[in-house]
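Researcher: Here's the sequence for the chain we discussed earlier.
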Amino acid sequence: MKPPPFSYAAPATLADAVGLLAEHAEAEPRVLAGGQSLIPIPLMNFRLAKPGYLVDLRNVAELIGIRRDGDTLVIGAMTTLSAIERSAEVAVAAPLLAEAVGLVAHTPVRNRGTVGGSLAHADPAAELPAAALASGAELVAAGPDGSRRIPIAEFLRRPFSTDLASDEILTEIRVPPWQGGHAFVEFSRTHGNFAVVGVAALVELDDGRVSRAALALTGVAPTAIRATAAERVLIGAAADDGAAAEAARAGAEGLAPTADLHASAQTRIGLARTYLDRHGTGPGRARRARGDNRQPGRRAVRPDAPLRPGPGQAHLALPGPGQGAPWRSPRS
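Model: Thanks. This is the structure I predict for it:
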């Protein structure tokens, strides 16, 4: 199936791009930020999205780049996922984000897809919204009236719907520092596919007790969500398996995911609880932000994957040869 007719522009500046959105408002314009979701089969080719005007941001150089603003990591919205995956700056300042990006689809998709495009698309099964939510990221949007900052928790509204106005463009993602451990784990049916369930975790310890915890889930709600009940159980608790199990129970309670052809609601709840217990909540299960920034590769982690302890931390252990790690199919 072919997409409906549309007009196209590739401006060189952010101001021109915003101006085009306002000028062609009657055509229901859409921003093209990599095109890995809008152009392929799911949206335009099946005419689920029928924009009359596309504004391609690929030439807007001011939206590309990774820098530090004090302790805050700032990533331009048109920075590709592969650039984030390879960035030493991101690996040090926001290793959770780097780990999540490594699980997104395949290299060709990451070479074209952008961080801003993924977040603005707001797929409820995508990795980046959960990682940004756990990180407490702040997004910056530009429009005809200037720019504004939007906390990620307020940015994600509904499936494929965000707080961006029709004449606004996402310009950068600001990620605050985190001194503790991190982990991003997911279960997907085939290599390269979206997560059935995923957990993003950041945990900080102080004298053997949890002083800070941020946990986010994907695949169990209309948007990525924070597991606030699990966080409340963890904060102040001793860093042991008992606290992890109790936090996992609290985090799974109240979840009401939708069943689909990939998994039943109970399967999703069970996966969320398993990952919260084994990988998400126990501080010893979160990869250290400093000293060990090795990414787990691009394979999804089985819910029964063993843990391999390291010095002072238990690192996520991926299935090895012969262990039947699930593959992830290409996304369209």
